[in-house]
Amino acid sequence: MNEIYTKTKIVSRNEMEKLTKTHEYTLLAVLTVDKYLIRYGRLLTRDLLEIVGEKLIPWNKKRGVRSSIQIAAAVTGYARISINKYKNIKDNDCVYTDTDSVSLT
Hints:
Mean pLDDT: 76
Radius of gyration: 23 Å
Helix content: 25-40%
Order of helices and strands: EHEEHHEE
Largest sheet: 3 strands, antiparallel
Oligomer: single chain
Shape: elongated
């Protein structure tokens, strides 16, 4: 899970707070009460640290819409199953199909 310039780790809250104060990070997720998933990269520059000081505790920053891969996969699978009745119409060739649409001749 490590990229060229980043590391992904599961850390405690104390370690997470240290990393968010000193490193740039692109992912922060709460796993349990004291476990966090963090993807962090290079150290923050000294100039930036002096400008923002102790305001660099963004571990509780708001994220967008939560998503679930399992639910998305289930919806996609169900859509594919339900669209099969249209794809299998006799004497109608299927030209194109997507998760929620089908084009027949």
